[in-house]
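seq as requested:
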Amino acid sequence: MSRVYNFSAGPAVLPEEVLREAAEEMMDYKGSGMSVMEMSHRSKVYDTIIKEAEQDIRDLMHIPDHYKVLFLQGGASQQFAMIPMNLMKNKKAGYIITGQWAKKAYQEAQIYGEAVKLASSEDQTFSYIPDCSDLDLPDDLDYVYICENNTIYGTKYKELPNTKGHLLVADVSSCFLSEPVDVSKYGVIFGGVQKNVGPAGVVIAIIREDLISDDVLPGTPTMLKYKTHADADSLYNTPPCYGIYICGKVFKWLKNMGGLEEIKKRNEEKAKILYDFLDQSKMFQGTVAPKDRSLMNVPFVTGDKDLDAKFVAEASKAGFVNLKGHRSVGGMRASIYNAMPKEGVEKLVAFMKEFEEANEPFGDLNG
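struct tokens:
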């Protein structure tokens, strides 16, 4: 069977070149006589893999020297606890709620201190990003937390909140490495890699060094202290070796493409093809305020649940898979991460046009 166009929100599509390279190296990585899956994380060969991966992401994101790059486990969800455990010195933090993942992080923070809801877009099913230019921020907040791109709802901050001097912490799981970013604007920027960077099992946290210390909440487990991992260069215990190796290959793929400036252009082109179609379609509608639309995740509906289900089923048969929307919102969602080729989006839109023509007038569906 030929490869499908995989529009999954994560684990998601990876670059074919990366998969081919990994396949070639599966039995014997660079003359070592073994797979990276079998290799000791303490070996010289693996040490080169993880150090190169770190250097490549530093190059791609222009990460300042006074930030640590940590390859961790537990996914982005484990960071919901690690962040307050390591950063909530005053036991008070602000959260902007723009989707399920920001909400879960906010709920987790309540275990460790006072979590203040600074703004929310829940009143309109998280279909927009609230105005964060002049928030009412208590002076004693330890940090302000955002989820920068909302995978389920398809929204994205186009401007970072005005934190008025407070530390900014951002979950960038679903927009990681999709565009240039000024790391110096964040205290912590982190993301699970399974959407845009690699296979599930790795989370990358980029943390300003002055925030890493032994001064953590009482009872914080050794494994949940940033200092534990920073002091050991992400090798305190056995890391997700193979996942980090694949991430390293994706970093090189991005560098070869021209870096994050070039990938942003490509992502904008791809998203425009789909959004332009949705804006003129009589059947399909986007669900997000146009100014807040994500380049990565594009939710849409027909307004008829049966028609949505029919579309998802027929699309899947035609080789466009994982288009069903998240169970909490229904409808459809096309995740068009870095590795989704432009051709995939063009073919999806062509299929949507055919489906629209074949299913008019809509009244016949219920007749």
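Confidence is low (pLDDT under 50) at residues 363-367.
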